[in-house]
Amino acid sequence: MNAYTDLIFEISRPGRTGCSLPERDVDAVNLSKKLPAHLIREEAPDLPEVSELQLVRHYTALSNKNHGVDNGFYPLGSCTMKYNPKINEDVAKLDGFSRIHPYQPEATVQGALALLHELQEDLAVITGMDAVTLQPSAGAQGEWTGLMMVKAYHQQRGEKRTKVLVPDSAHGTNPASATVAGFRTVTIPSTKNGLVDVEELKKHVDDDTAALMLTNPNTLGLFEKDILEIASVIHEAGGLLYYDGANANAILGKTTPGKMGFDIVHLNLHKTFTTPHGGGGPGAGPVGVKEKLIPFLPVPRIEKRNGRFVLNREEPLSIGRVKGYYGNFGILVRAYTYIRTMGPDGLRQVSESAVLHANYLRKKLEPYFVSPYEQVSKHEFVLSGSRQKKLGVRTLDMAKRLLDFGYHPPTIYFPLNVEECLMIEPTETESKETLDAFADVMIRIAREVEEDPETVLNAPHTTVIGRLDEVKAARKPVVRWERETVRL
Amino acid sequence: MNIVLTDAARRQLLVSSPDDGRVPRIDAEMTGGCGVSVRLSLVWDEPRRMDITIPVGDHVSLHLDRFTKRYAGEHLLVDYNETDGFVLGEAFDSSCTT
């Protein structure tokens, strides 16, 4: 076995097997009589042939190379990589939740529907909305769902608005979702203080404005203090205000998007509400709306009637179903468990601690990096590597160096309006000792940039593989293993 | 590393040369988040420590930092036009879906 861990195909040996099948006790079928010729293989598939133990060791070795919150600090800004309590898993595995079927009659799954209904109500309170759908299976799908409701809302009023405004610090999914939903996006610049430029916003708001998508606190970790004025500007023009809940970890129990004037909210349960980051799924991106948008929510809606929970499929203005069944149920159970475990006071403390941790780290690191914004941040903050850039070392180099100390790097080069950006989100679940240790390493790297830049430029040194040739990977990607391929 | 300047780029480089100590620099700008995108530009900038200098004739040398060299590839064509300014080789994008 080499340093990479050989591919499963490379440890394969002809004839080796990890299982034994019983002797066939039925007649063999001649496939050529059952299937068209072009669908029948001429050769057997080139599958790996390994023993069960080899298989277990191979994938265990791979899993040991992973970095996750369970084995190290993961301050990936905007992604809220916080600890996922194991009680969430225990509850999700209960037979009553894990061994039911979405086609069961409603009467036999009243407990599951009760959980979903309570979660809808909890999220409505947390966000200050009037109703919530749990269907969307990711934050970005929540955005799309919200925007389809925006479109339906305007159409129902006899308007065809085409423009969605997004600030230049927005998550990339915002303009992407707006485009997929059929809108065109207009970017609103930020002020030098990192906040939405309200005067610029006013220039772009008109009767073609369908919505403004905003994150508050924004991706710089700064609270949009003019949010009430912004809401007024949008609403007076007949537009809607959309809240990207990616940064909701900063406001739990302190304020709500509803109080800020937002009409629609999506939440990323894998960020704020400690469900696993699925790397593509399963996920959940519930969407909350104010009363005027309730008719457009996806169906079926989970409702309580006469003490029983029912699935309401009869909403004529609904945008329809956006996900099979009722959302990713197991993920929703985990979020529900987290909310019930924490309670209102616990959730408020989450945000207070998240903000405290971010500012503690920010103050420790400010002497060593350019800090582009002076004001107190919320749950995350940005630094600029522009000082180090002048010394010939880039933010990416420093991020690679962090790997040598067992840390996942912060988000880098985002938001786009900060040169050589490092976006750090420590989350509330880390100890002071972890924050101090991380700060010490960041300071050490800043000193290395000045005194020993080669160490940083050639990092990482302790990982399984060193610096990747990203240019070659992008220009000449090899994404399919073939037996003739020679490993570099 | 092989950098080729078109005649238009060479002319513009010579006429736009400032006299304040700044040098012509090929600079890689990275934008990130879930995806990574690198864009190359030619700018007038202060020299940086550990700069790599590459002569391109007419007593002109282009400066690159190590980071930029890594992303510029082995061959780079620099052109110039009135609309876009200096136009450099090919940049690349990569992205993920998280």
Q: Main attributes?
A:
heterodimer; A: 488 residues; Aspartate Aminotransferase, domain 2; Aspartate Aminotransferase, domain 1; 2 domains; 7-stranded mixed β-sheet; globular; B: Hypothetical Protein Aq_1857, Chain: A; 3-stranded antiparallel β-sheet
Description of the molecule:
The complex is a heterodimer of chains A (488) and B (98). Chain A is 36% helix and 10% strand. With 488 residues, chain A is of the alpha/beta class. Chain A has two domains: 86-341, 3-Layer(aba) Sandwich (Aspartate Aminotransferase, domain 2); 351-473, Aspartate Aminotransferase, domain 1, CATH 3.90.1150. The longest helix of chain A has 37 residues, at 329-365. Chain B is of the alpha+beta class and 98 residues long. Chain B has helices at 7-15, 66-72; strands at residues 2-5, 23-31, 36-45, 52-55, 61-64, 75-81, 85-88, 92-94. In chain B, the strands form three sheets. Chain B has a three-stranded mixed β-sheet. In chain B, a hairpin with a 3-residue loop joins strand 6 (75-81) and strand 7 (85-88). Chain B starts with a strand and ends with a strand. The model of chain B has no long low-confidence stretch (mean pLDDT 85). The interface between A and B is medium-sized, with 29 and 24 residues.
Estimated radius of gyration of chain B: 14 Å
Task: Specify the helix fraction band of chain A.
Answer: 25-40%
Spans of at least 5 consecutive residues with low confidence of chain B: none
Pair with the biggest interface = A-B, 29 and 24 residues
What's the architecture of the largest domain in chain A, going by CATH?
A: 3-Layer(aba) Sandwich
Overall, the morphology of chain A is globular
Strand order in space, largest sheet of chain B: 1-6-7
Q: Give the end-to-end Cα distance of chain A, rounded to a whole number of Å.
A: 15 Å
Our measurement of the CA-to-CA distance between the termini of chain B, rounded to an integer number of angstroms, reads 35 Å
> Given the structure, what is the number of helices of chain A?
16
Helix content percent band of chain B: 10-25%
Question: What's the domain count of chain A?
Answer: 2
Strand content of chain A: 5-15%
CATH superfamily of the largest domain in chain A: Type I PLP-dependent aspartate aminotransferase-like (Major domain)
